């Protein structure tokens, strides 16, 4: 990305931060009309959600200056909302724990936060709320992965309402950015997705999604060609999730499902520029049966048809 492009993105993030912090009241001196600042409320929340926390772990996980956190904890102790208990694993350490008063304050903050957010999004339609939450999950996934903080397990599951459209969007934008493919590829993906939604047989066709804490990291389709042949389609993995073995897990789901539902052969179509994907398919025993040069999506490339027995 050019420096001018980076600068524009930085300005966009800063604008969003200004909008969001003002919109949810994060700039208020006392969060949610409570006696606590935003940082104090977050510390209280972590102690209400997690057991066995020490000050060092809390400072690390919240990226707080240890001296600043120490002052926050001292105020909580003086107010009788936090107790420091001996750490059975470290004679010199102390475990932080909410007292009864602290648990009451935590519960009140949770109720106030629920009410505030419900007031903000309650007027939105279900579709608008779904788009909002999906966008937030995308931000969380991208920034969490960039910090190495994505620790939730990745679950391979079936698609949910609204996710096929997202999969089309990600294919179009990723292949544009990485390979320069044009809108004709988006049209092809949209056509495949629409056909799947309109005519697919759940007993013999499926879409799998790699989900990490609500963030889609990749997906794949298996569709019927005829009673004996199934076709693997539209495999993709988000850039930040590559190297985690998700492509292998998704392809494995396709193969096992195809075997279980009575198919005897699998086929797929890929292109020579998709080197990592071709390497993955080769590792599963797919073999090249035909190839043809084309420029269907802009740049010249060679299409490969691969097949394997089940």
Characterization of the model:
By secondary structure, the chain is an alpha+beta fold. It has helices at about 5-25, 40-50, 55-60, 65-80, 100-120, 125-145, 165-180, 185-200, 245-260, 275-285, and strands at about 80-85, 90-100, 155-160, 205-210, 215-225, 230-235, 265-270, 285-295, 300-310. The chain has two domains: about 5-125, Arc Repressor Mutant, subunit A (Orthogonal Bundle); about 155-310, Aminopeptidase (3-Layer(aba) Sandwich), CATH 3.40.630.30. The protein contains ten helices and nine strands.
What is the secondary structure topology, with strand pairs?
Elements: H1 3-23, H2 38-49, H3 55-62, H4 66-78, E1 82-87, E2 90-98, H5 100-121, H6 126-146, E3 154-158, H7 163-179, H8 183-199, E4 206-212, E5 215-224, E6 229-237, H9 246-260, E7 265-271, H10 275-283, E8 287-294, E9 301-309
Parallel strand pairs: 6-7
Antiparallel strand pairs: 1-2, 3-4, 4-5, 5-6, 7-9, 8-9
In total, the number of domains comes to 2
Count of individual helical segments: 10
What is the CA–CA distance across the termini? 44 Å
- Strand runs, count: 9
Percent of residues in beta strands? 15-25%
Helical amount: 40-55%
Radius of gyration: 25 Å
Described by strand count, sense and barrel closure, the largest sheet is: 7 strands, mixed
* Model regions low in confidence, pLDDT < 50 over at least 5 residues: none
- Name the CATH architecture of the largest domain: 3-Layer(aba) Sandwich
Q: Kindly report the oligomeric state of this protein.
A: single chain
CATH class of the largest domain: Alpha Beta
Structural class: alpha+beta
What is the average of the pLDDT values?
Answer: 88
